[in-house]
Recover the amino acids of this structure.
């Protein structure tokens, strides 16, 4: 079996090729984790993912799914940017990535507060291996994560019962779409490749998530 970083970067390369040839929606290339309840934490990673890949049970389940996406994205920027400086990127990109990182951190904090206020238990952050080795690789992974995250949010929206929570989720996914558009641009792709986003359902996200959760 190939190493995690090889699998991840292969997926990124395939996604970039698909966009270049079809100008399709970037949605299937990133390998991202998705949520579930902390009560599943004692199960092996693959077992947890299999259990989570079922229909959403309630709004708290959807919120924990969203929180896991945000945990993953925030950890990616938080830990990754600590290893770079502005000199590693073209002018202004590093500063914008810092803003994206802070947005993701705010999303994490907000979702934790909402889940707790509703009597739920927020899912904990996992440990990830994103596999990039340089600034260009970091940007490629960032674009794939953001694009897949947008499609994952869109796929989960139909399962939200509360109108208030649906509206709140819409304010997050709109910002994630801005992130995705910007990162498409800095990677030399079309910032807005299609007139409609392609929703990515929970099972599709979880099917490719397992190898990239390392703890």
């Amino acid at each position: 079996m190939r190493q995690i970083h090889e699998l991840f970067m292969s997926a990124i390369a395939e996604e970039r090729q698909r966009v270049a040839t079809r100008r399709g929606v970037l949605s299937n290339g990133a390998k991202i984790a998705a949520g579930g309840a902390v009560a599943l934490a004692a199960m092996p990673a693959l077992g947890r993912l299999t259990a989570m890949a079922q229909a959403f049970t309630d709004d708290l389940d959807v919120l924990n799914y969203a929180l896991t996406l945000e945990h993953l994205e925030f950890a990616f920027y938080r830990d990754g940017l600590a290893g770079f400086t502005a000199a590693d990127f073209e002018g202004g990109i590093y500063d914008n990535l810092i803003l994206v990182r802070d947005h993701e951190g705010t999303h994490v904090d907000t979702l934790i507060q909402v889940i707790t206020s509703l009597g739920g238990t927020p899912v904990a952050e996992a440990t990830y291996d994103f596999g990039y080795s340089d600034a260009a690789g970091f940007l490629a992974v960032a674009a794939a994560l953001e694009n897949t995250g947008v499609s994952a949010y869109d796929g989960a929206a139909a399962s939200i019962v509360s109108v208030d929570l649906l509206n709140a989720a819409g304010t997050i996914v709109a910002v994630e779409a801005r992130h995705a558009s910007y990162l498409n641009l800095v990677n030399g792709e079309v910032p807005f490749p299609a007139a409609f986003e392609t929703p990515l359902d929970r099972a599709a996200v979880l099917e490719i998530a397992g190898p990239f959760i390392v703890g």
About this structure: Confidence is low (pLDDT under 50) at residues 1-9, 18-49. Helices lie at 4-22, 45-52, 59-81, 93-117, 135-157, 163-186, 202-207. Residues 54 and 72 are 20 Å apart (CA to CA). The two ends are 18 Å apart (CA to CA).
